[in-house]
Input
Amino acid sequence: MTPHIRPDLASIPAYVPGRNFPGAIKLASNETTLGPLPSVRDAVAEAVGHANRYPDNGAVALIETLASFLNVEPANVAAGCGSVTLCQELVQVTCDPGDEVIYAWRSFEAYPVVTQVGHAVSVKVPLAEDFGHDLDAMLAAITDRTRLIFICNPNNPTGNALSKAELESFLNAVPSSVVVALDEAYYEYSRSDADGIELFRNRPNVVVLRTFSKAYGLAGIRVGYAVAHPEIIVALGKVHTPFSVSALAQTAAIASLAAADELLARTDAVIAERTRVRTALIEAGYTVPESSANFVYLPLLELSPGYADASTESGILIRQYGTEGVRMTIGDPDENDAFLAFALTDEVKRLAGIGVSA
Ligand SMILES: *Cc1c(COP(=O)(O)O)cnc(C)c1O
Output
């Protein structure tokens, strides 16, 4: 007899490591190119000396630091082993088997997985023509089984951001029993007026998710957080995997908040590069949705696999989404130049379906 494994898991693809090779330019995972600041490295190095002890399971020091940073109460904050863990916990605390989770598609690849693992049912609402959320269609998809809605703002992988007014009218129309997760993993790169922390204050069904993995440059250390009314925060605590936010992660996050000004200043440089790359691509004939994050999306449809392969061959790793598109993370100027040198050749433009004059 073989061990019994939930049969429905067969439809979740087994993990396949992304392609990587020495010298590759990694523009596939929306990481920052720069490593942690010296002050953060020093704090983590110091914390290693106490690694024989369990971390604080309540992440009290981190949560208090976050609360004062965000001007909320500690009872409004939960920490997670990356915000992807908090996505999973939100499904666990809201859904009984067969309940529905609505999200836009394409969006963050973890949503379908955490939904299915949580025995809930995905309701995927196609993006609008401009590759942003179709909020009217998402409202129309709400049923009496809907328990959770993910809004990825800015949207990964397409980059579009919703405005405060768009989000407010959406949130006002969602029944207050349905939890809305505003996934703001790229908040720091957005210059839209939408700020989940403002929007959750008078809405007990809204939870904001943010992470230290992107603008704060700690993707390898694994720490993110949720901000919501205490009912949701207390529930998240009940399904939290004990001690999953390591002591090093808590320390690194606190040290990063102390250096927030310096880290956030880096986002201006990324935004300038995002504009430069997008403009160059558009001038060469590419379609590139406006992005409020640290990446740009090329909706190349059936040309996507060939394009991503050619990029890999040329030493640049980008992310391919089936036959929908590819996403390129904005790296440092040299890395972006390398991508543009690839993307703007006649041969590669042909691969992207751009008519090249003879
Ligand atoms: C990267 C990302 C996250 C979270 O990443 P963690 O490393 O788990 O904190 C969450 N949502 C979206 C949309 C992301 O792109």
